[in-house]
Write the structure tokens for this entry.
Amino acid sequence: MSHELWMEVMDGLANKCLELSKYFTHQILCNPRHLLFTLSRYKAAARLLPRYRECAVLELGCNEGIGSLILAENATAFTGVDFDADGIAWARENLANDKLSFIADDFLGKSYGTFDAVVSLDVIEHIAQQEESRFFDTILANLTRDGICVMGTPNDTASRYASEESKKGHINMYTSERLYKASAERFKNVFFFGMNDEVLHTGFDHMCHYLMVLACNPR
């Protein structure tokens, strides 16, 4: 391909590219390393979802939906919910299709249907402690009898290294023990993982920066 033809192709693609949402534009310009970590969490969660069969997925706290695209790759249907009306408006305009839908709502205590999997990443640490039971009840209310849940949250043991800005929003931090107990009270089977940067592993809990739980078979 000649250089001129190559440039013509690239110009055509550029004209079709989406303008990224405010949050992810900020991440790219100001904190690209954190964006890498965020998308790595979505990739890890997606690998824990059922494949090769029907799987309807609900994401609680989907932000502007960029990570949702990873979760939806193998899903037969995907619904993302977030209270950020502007973020959801962007997702609806740019990402929604026959398989992906987005809802602007405070999801606590709400049911949006019956799903094979519920995913919630970087959300539970923002839920006030007095509301955490409603958060788990919301997950259960949206799952099939043999459904699964994937949750991810920063590890409280890593809080000393968090930025002041991060600490302000993280009002309900979990240790591995606390998150396991809360999950096991509501699911028969709970599998625990840790993440450091973009690496998912089964290492020593207290040295994990990030915690990820796969919970199966609601009680």
Remarks:
- Residues 57 and 78 are 5 Å apart (CA to CA).
- The domain at 33-218 is CATH 3.40.50.150 (Rossmann fold).
- The mean pLDDT is 90.
- The chain is about 35% helix and 25% strand.
